[in-house]
Write a structure and sequence with these properties.
Elements (H helix, E strand, L loop, with lengths): L1 H37 L3 H5 L1 H35 L1 H40 L3 H43 L1
Helix pairs in contact: 1-3, 1-5, 3-4, 3-5, 4-5
Amino acid sequence: MDILKTATDWAKDEVFSTRFFILFGILFIIATLGFWKLGKTAIAKAYIIPTLVAGILLLTIGLGLFFTNKSRITQFKTAYNTDSSAFVASEFKRIDATLNEYKTIVIKAIPLIIIACSLVIMFVNSPTWRAGMITAIAMLIVILLIDGTAHSRIENYNKKLISITKETNK
C-alpha cells in the first residue's frame, strides 16, 4: 500500500507543478495583450506573435500534463489493485524512460537551444528576430525551471519505489 501512496503523492505533486506551465502561459498571453495595446516601438510590436506563440505552447503543455497526471491518480489505484507487481514494473519502466528523456531534452537540448538563440540575438539586428529569440529563451527558462523540479521529483519517486520494493521483498 506504501507503493500506491507514493505513486499517488508523486502524481498529485505533478498535477500541482503543471499548473505553473498554465500560469506562465497565461502570463505570456497577458504580455502579448500588453505589447499589442501599448507597444509603440518596432521591438515592442515584434513581441506580439512570439509571446502569443509561447503562451499557447506553455498552456498546451500545462493542460496536457495536467489532465494526463490527473487521470494517472485514478489509474494508479486500479492498476495497483489489479496486479501490484506489474504496476511496480511498469512504473520503473516509465520512470527510466522519463529520466532518459530529461537527460536528452532538458539537460542537453534546451541549454543548446538557449545558446543558439543567444547567438542569433548577438548577430542579427532585426526586431522580429530579437523578439522571437528573447521570447524563446524566456519560454525555455520557464520549461527548465519547472522541469528541473519535476526531474528531481521523479528521481525521488524512483528512490522511494526502490526502497519500498526492497523492504517488501525482505
